[in-house]
Design goal:
With about 400 residues, the protein is α/β, with parallel strands linked by helices. The chain has two domains: about 220 residues, Glycogen Phosphorylase B (Rossmann fold, 3-Layer(aba) Sandwich), CATH 3.40.50; about 160 residues, 3-Layer(aba) Sandwich (Rossmann fold). About 50% of the residues lie in helices and about 15% in strands. It has 16 helices and 13 strands. Strands 3-2-1-4-5-6-7 form a seven-stranded parallel sheet, sandwiched between helices. A six-stranded parallel sheet has the order 10-9-8-11-12-13, sandwiched between helices. Helix 3 crosses helix 4 and helix 5 packs across helix 6. The longest helix is centred in the N-terminal third of the chain and has 24 residues. The protein starts with a strand and ends with a helix. The mean pLDDT is about 95.
Length: about 400
């Protein structure tokens, strides 16, 4: 089978790498196609990531002329199929010129993917973050399609994301949370609901062993891992940390990741007088992120919207007490006051108060951290949950074989 992903490998999507490696260990032959190349130079990739990069087919690596050449070849080989699929992509855009341009780009990429699938003789494609390209590719090449819907983007703009259209077109739809499954039900007909499966993501317990607990750290290390984009709300976290500093607490915030908001966040830290307490670590590979976890006393993710973040699972597996926002699927991972602390999204004061509780109370940090690891071991283990996904794939392929015969 094939995996079609948006960017591979990617620091903020290491769970896809782990999922693929585990499926191969379980006996699946997985071929990977990625729209974009890795998000870091080769020398900054981990050894697993380097091996994957060498064997991955990259669509954009063909360049504009290469993509155009493949589209011409597909057109001249299957002109009627190509034109019908092209008309479908344009029709979905409606009268929105900007959307039409993006759909044409996705369609051109879909033709490259369909050509690759045909050459590799692959009949089942599973998608992460590439469902629009997959939707168009399905019109160009007959295949069984499955997709993991993560949220929150799909559910925030279901019409612009063609969510209902994709649910009808794809043969299997995997949600990573019960919240996600309910959103899929919300935007589809009951006749489509049998396609839905909930398979949670997970982490490798062996890779995320707890470090030695620090009872009285000075400074107390607070860690954030994620893209520096508005939805992650790192600016609220910096403001909350500034409150702690001005109240006299010894803390240091480390922000791991990069993105469009970095310059603004750096200015905000300076303006609040906490630029010495806020450290921008930039993108790190998986090994680098694990090293950051080893130093952390508290993990914080103040996002305005999420699916179920794997970085929270990783921190919890390392017995780092977490503060997160009570949004979308997060409460399915963290039970408030049991496995971590949940706060309202966008509330700087409440976030600061939760962080202050953990800074001041070492026993609370220890109790929440231990409970957090137990929670992950029980319900968010990579091997167990990937085995569940493997069973879903096997059942799906068996049903497809019966239908074909």
């Amino acid at each position: 089978m094939a995996y079609l992903v948006s960017q591979y490998p990617a620091a903020n999507h290491t769970f896809i790498l782990r999922e693929i490696l585990e499926l191969r260990r379980l006996g699946f032959e997985i071929h990977v196609s990625s729209i974009r190349a890795a998000d870091r130079p080769f020398e900054r990739l981990s050894e697993d990531e380097r091996r994957e990069q060498r064997s991955t087919f990259y669509v954009k690596a063909l360049g504009v002329f290469g993509v155009a050449g493949v589209n011409l070849r597909v057109f001249f080989t299957h002109p009627a199929v190509y034109l019908r699929a092209l008309a479908y992509a344009v029709r979905l855009a409606g009268w929105n010129a900007r959307t039409a341009v993006f759909n044409l780009i996705y369609f051109a990429e879909a033709a490259v993917v369909a050509s690759w699938l045909r050459r590799q003789m692959l009949s089942h494609v599973h998608m992460h973050f590439t469902s629009t390209v997959g939707l168009f590719a399905q019109r160009l090449y007959p295949m069984q399609t499955s997709v993991t819907m993560h949220g929150p983007d799909e559910f925030g703009d279901p019409s612009g994301f063609y969510l209902s259209e994709k649910i009808r077109a794809f043969h299997l739809v995997v949600a990573i949370s019960e919240f996600g499954r309910k959103q899929l039900m919300r935007y589809s007909d009951p006749g489509q609901w049998e396609k839905f499966r909930v398979v949670r993501l997970g982490v490798d317990q062996g890779l995320y062993a707890p470090p030695t607990f620090r009872g009285n750290p000075a400074p107390c290390e607070i860690l954030f891992v994620g893209r520096l984009a508005p939805v992650k709300a790192a600016h609220i976290l910096i403001a909350a940390v500034a409150r702690l500093v001005h109240q006299g607490r010894s803390v240091r915030l480390r922000l791991v990741g990069d993105g469009p908001c970095r310059g603004e966040l750096e200015r905000g830290a300076r303006e609040r007088g906490v630029h010495e307490q806020v450290v921008f670590e930039g993108w790190q590979n998986a090994d680098g992120v694990r090293a950051m976890y080893q130093q952390a006393d508290i993990f914080c993710l103040p996002s305005l919207a999420e699916g179920i973040p794997v970085v929270l699972m990783e921190a919890m597996a390392m017995e780092i007490p977490c503060v997160a926002t009570r949004v979308t699927g997060v409460p399915e991972l963290i039970r408030d006051q049991i496995d971590g602390l949940l706060v309202a999204s966008g509330n700087e004061e409440e976030l600061a108060a939760a962080l202050a509780r953990l800074v001041d109370d070492s026993e609370l940090r220890l109790r929440l951290g231990r409970s957090a690891r137990q929670r992950v071991v029980q319900d968010f283990d990579l091997q167990r949950n990937t085995r569940q996904l493997a069973e879903v794939f096997r059942e799906f392929e068996q049903e497809a074989s019966r239908a074909a015969s």
